[in-house]
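Box S1 | Example of a co-folding query
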Amino acid sequence: MALLRCIPQSSTYLPKIRGFRMHGTKAAASVVEEHISRAEREDEEYADVDWDNLGFSLVRTDYMFATKSSSDGNFDQGYLSRYGNIELNPAAGILNYGQGLIEGLKAYRGEDGRVLLFRPDLNAMRMKMGAERMCMHSPSVQHFIEGVKQTVLANRRWVPPPGKGSLYLRPLLFGSGASLGVAAAPEYTFLVFGSPVQNYFKEGTAALNLYVEEVVPRAYLGGTGGVKAISNYGPVLEAMRRAKSRGFSDVLYLDAETGKNIEEVSASNIFLVKGNTIVTPATNGTILGGITRKSVIEIALDLGYKVEERSVAVEELKDAREVFCTGTATGVASVGSITFQNTRTEYKVGDALVTQQLRSILVGIQTGSIQDTKDWVLEIA
Ligand SMILES: Cc1ncc(COP(=O)(O)O)c(C=O)c1O
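Box S1 (continued) | Returned holo structure for pyridoxal-5'-phosphate
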């Protein structure tokens, strides 16, 4: 497979692509024809997507980025290839011993046409932290950002029009080297792909109804709850399925040690609003330090709210006026109700509330309509 380091800008440019093989004249001609038509399509400003009906399911884009580590832990420069299946050794660390991390960030298209990434350095640092915890090699912060940037630029036509969503980027780091005995893999792959998305929940922008899970904890002290290990997600899928089958939007987990404190939702952090005070569970290793969480806390402090990061007893859910969840996929999502032990507590939702105020400032910064005075936004096109 050949390398592709730049994006086709015109239909006369035929990129060299990994996996592009010609067999005989006829086959070669049809491959070239298909290739020209692809290149023509890729000249279009937007991909052929129903932008008004995007949810959060995988849409196949054009390219993905990948780089592998060598035995000294350094990653090669990396390359773009056509989005598609990857090949793995059956003894790969990821398949046998779960050495895998995910990340999630978004590219937004502003009204002025600029394409922006939101705090990608924090995703890169979180992946590095996770890699240390999981005994894996990881790419540098710059290399991580470069891989994400290349992926966005190569898939630019998949970045939704302003106000119609974003291109969700999924960086993966996994043990691709083979090991039969329990051991860290000898080689790691860093891969980035993307998919245009809009609302994470089927509820759209309507308020969420959460269910407090009392049997299955998400994480435990000393475990991997504080990093984005892929192994954190499989064990809660059944609890999520159960809650969803009963009409709830998602699950709110309790701490494994006492079962008395709330922790977080399946892929988002949680906040309670009580008067001028905003309360959220502290990150002590069992909760993911969300980048949206961190950003919302900073915005709330700037606005003059008091923010408390501490243990939050499940009983406190009764005292909150508003509740909201934060996450890259979720955004800042209003929670309309939480059900705990068959008791449903309802919360205020709608405009002119703290949740809405925080959401509109965050979205404004992410999409470039509010000036970024904090150096959070990286303009890549
Ligand atoms: C378990 C969990 N908590 C919280 C979050 C929110 O984190 P972020 O705001 O960085 O997307 C995520 C999503 O990545 C998550 O998977």
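Residues 24-43 form the longest helix (20 residues). The longest strand covers residues 166-175.
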